[in-house]
Amino acid sequence: FILAGxxxxxxxAVPKDLWRVSTGLAMVGRLGVSVAYTIFPVYSAEVxxxxxxxxxxxxxxxxxxxGGILAPFVTLLGKYWAPLPLLTFGILSxxxxxxxxxxxxxxxxxxxxxxxxxxxxxxxxxxxxxxTLPDEAWTTERTEIYERLTVL
Length: 152
What we know:
mainly alpha, single chain
């Protein structure tokens, strides 16, 4: 979101005669938004505890759809000042990116099962995926799977 916001805000500052720079910045902003909206649902599923995960993901989806409905109306702000829609999207995207930085890291952390687990998510030490099972277990599991596949 931060990349998208900076790109949108910078696009608003580019003069009209530098249309290639403006187009390039707009495309970088579009790329940033596309990447963020692809990753965000996956991250949301990791943060919500099991007991409220469906409700949480539903709420995130609903808010995202509401933003999608309201976004075309932001372009109407261009009637008052041409760069205002880009500045609006840019500032909101940067604020979103800064807010997301406050969320906890979920890499290598087990998914929370209860609300208490979710509240303590930031305090849980990260677990390395390689150290979850001993090497013998991985070898045995791979061998068993391979043997099952060869029988089929």
